[in-house]
C-alpha cells in the first residue's frame, strides 16, 4: 500500500527521476494500489536540456509498480522490485513518450491505452 509522503521512481522519460506522493485521488482511505491516481511533487530531476517537468512541480501520476503484493481475481499475488509511477497531464495522457520497465495489468483495466502503447511489456 502506498501512502502520503511515499517516494517513487518515475519510469517515463519526462525528465523526472523521483517523486513524492502528496494525495491519493478518488479514494476514501489515503492509501493507493497499482492503477490508482495520485498527486505528485517532483523531488529529483535528470540533468538534460529538454526536460518536460521542473523541480518541485506538482503533477498527476498513476502507480504502475509496487513492492507490496497485489492480489488479482484469479488468486495470483504479484510484487515488483520497486515503487514506480508514470506522470500524466490533466487529460490523463502520459507526459513522456517512453516507459522503462514492465507495467502491471491493472493499468489495462483502467483503459489508459496511450500509456500501454508506449510501454515495453505488460505483466
TrEMBL record:
Transmembrane segments: none annotated. SMART domains: Ribosomal_L14. The keyword Secreted does not apply. The keyword Ribosomal protein applies. InterPro entries: Ribosomal_uL14, Ribosomal_uL14_bac-type, Ribosomal_uL14_sf. It comes from the Eukaryota. Signal peptide: none annotated. GO terms for biological process: translation. Keywords: Mitochondrion, Ribonucleoprotein, Ribosomal protein. Pfam families: Ribosomal_L14. GO terms for molecular function: large ribosomal subunit rRNA binding; structural constituent of ribosome. One of its GO terms (cellular component) is mitochondrial large ribosomal subunit. Coiled coil: none annotated. Belongs to the universal ribosomal protein uL14 family. This is Ribosomal protein L14. It comes from Naegleria fowleri.
